[in-house]
Amino acid sequence: MGNNISFSDLEAGDYILVTYAGTVAESYPGQIHDVLRIELLEDNL
Fold first, then answer.
1. Is residue 43 scored above 80 in pLDDT?
2. Do the beta carbons of residue 36 and residue 20 sit within 8 Å?
3. Number of other CB atoms surrounding residue 3 within 10 Å
4. Are residues 15 and 41 in contact, defined by beta-carbon separation less than 8 angstroms?
5. Residues near 16 by Cβ (< 8 Å), separated by ≥ 6?
6. Are the C-beta atoms of residues 13 and 1 closer than 8 Å to each other?
7. What is the pLDDT of residues 12-40, one digit of tens each?
8. How far apart are CA 14 and CA 29, in angstroms?
9. Residue 27: predicted pLDDT
10. How far apart (Å, rounded) are the C-alpha atoms in residues 3 and 21?
11. Distances (CA, A) of 44 to 4, 13, 15, 32, 34
12. Apex 31 CA angle, 25 and 33, nearest 5
């Protein structure tokens, strides 16, 4: 398992992976329910 980071560690343009078990609301902006994990990915995908 990776390291815990805070929201302030994320920057505009970062690539993330969101794992969730709920629904995605059809709103703007979209809302993801029941988020289980957010991973910060490497820049070179």
1. no
2. yes
3. 6
4. yes
5. 10, 38, 39, 40, 41
6. no
7. 999 999 999 989 999 999 899 999 998 99
8. 18
9. 94
10. 22
11. 21, 12, 9, 25, 28
12. 85
Mean pLDDT of 2-16: 87
**Can you tell me which residue has the tokens 């991973």?**
39
Dist. CA 29–CA 45, nearest whole Å: 25
Q: Is residue 40 a contact partner of residue 9, using CB atoms and an 8 Å limit?
A: yes
Give CA–CA dist 42/35, Å, rounded: 21
Phi then psi for 24, rounded to 5 degrees? -115, 120
pTM, full prediction: 0.68
Query: What pLDDT does 44 receive?
Result: 53
